[in-house]
């Protein structure tokens, strides 16, 4: 009987010890899981939160650029070959597309009409573009059918078109999320025939005026941490911004935008800080065949670093377009 009592005691102690060890193991696992989660969260909030936004100048993939691609390159990756590696540094890459990507429609504009063949979309996709402005004076060179087709072609390579479409999509911000940052993009122009302006049932472009701009920025602020407004404005080949460019750019920042990106002059203009925002009045050309002057074969890439949802650094990077209409970093 005495032996049985000792056996029960030993067995009980063994069970209690085993349960205690199991408890310790579980506590240790919970501790390391919590520690691992905390470290991961810390890395996400401290390490990954520098988001790089890149902005390029005018891109036109028709006319002389198309001829060079067909003569020297296998596809439309060719125009971007010299700068592709740098573009890959972007978390979000934006440019101004001056040629629709389509084989549909018919020529409406009598002078300088631009329409790139559909396979050109793959060049833009491989270069890494995420958003392009389609609000410019070439968007409807071949009519609404070509513009609509171009928007669809861009979607196939995961590129968003901003500033063109039917009423809802042309005037609404395009929002992109990277890391913990939401960036809203808007695009407008006043450099087009009135018949190109978007309406409820008609494909067109977002028109630049005070009312549309304020409404657009207000909507974008509700959806994103950072608001970028792209303007197709100014006068071609002028090296300084005019009063209209300054007025609309200041209005955009005063209304709540963080960045203004300008296109159309085809030459580089001023980059300046205005209050808490930044304005690049014209980034010049990026891929274009205007080889009649040195100025039109130059451009800027605006590199913007964002951390804690605030712009921390803005760096203009100069590019030169070579004889094959390829941009190269200076």
Describe this structure in words.
With 330 residues, this protein is of the alpha/beta class. 34% of the residues lie in helices and 28% in strands. The protein has 8 helices and 18 strands. Strands 1, 2, 5, 6, 15, 16, 17 and 18 form an 8-stranded mixed sheet that branches. Helix 7 packs parallel to helix 8. The longest helix has 45 residues. It starts with a helix and ends with a strand. About 2% of the residues have low confidence.
Short description:
The protein has 330 residues and is α/β, with parallel strands linked by helices.
Overview features:
eight-stranded mixed beta sheet, globular, alpha/beta
| Span of the ends, CA to CA | 96 Å
Q: What is the typical, i.e. mean, pLDDT?
A: 91
What is the CA-atom radius of gyration, in angstroms? 27 Å
Q: Provide the structure class.
A: alpha/beta
How would you characterize the largest beta sheet? 8 strands, mixed
- The SSE order reads HEHHEEEHEHEEHEEEHEHEEEEEEE
SS summary, helix count: 8
User: What's the β-strand tally?
Assistant: 18
Principal-axes shape call: globular
Low-pLDDT segments: 35-40
Q: In percent, how helical is the residue content?
A: 25-40%
- Estimated share of beta-strand residues: 25-35%
Task: Give the SSE map.
Blueprint: H1 2-46, E1 51-59, H2 63-72, H3 84-87, E2 92-97, E3 100-101, E4 115-116, H4 120-127, E5 131-133, H5 143-156, E6 160-162, E7 164-165, H6 167-171, E8 174-178, E9 181-189, E10 204-205, H7 210-223, E11 226-232, H8 243-255, E12 259-263, E13 271-274, E14 277-280, E15 285-287, E16 298-307, E17 310-321, E18 327-329
Parallel strand pairs: 1-2, 1-15, 2-5, 3-4, 5-6, 9-11, 11-12, 12-14
Antiparallel strand pairs: 1-16, 7-10, 8-9, 13-14, 16-17, 17-18
Helix pairs in contact: 7-8
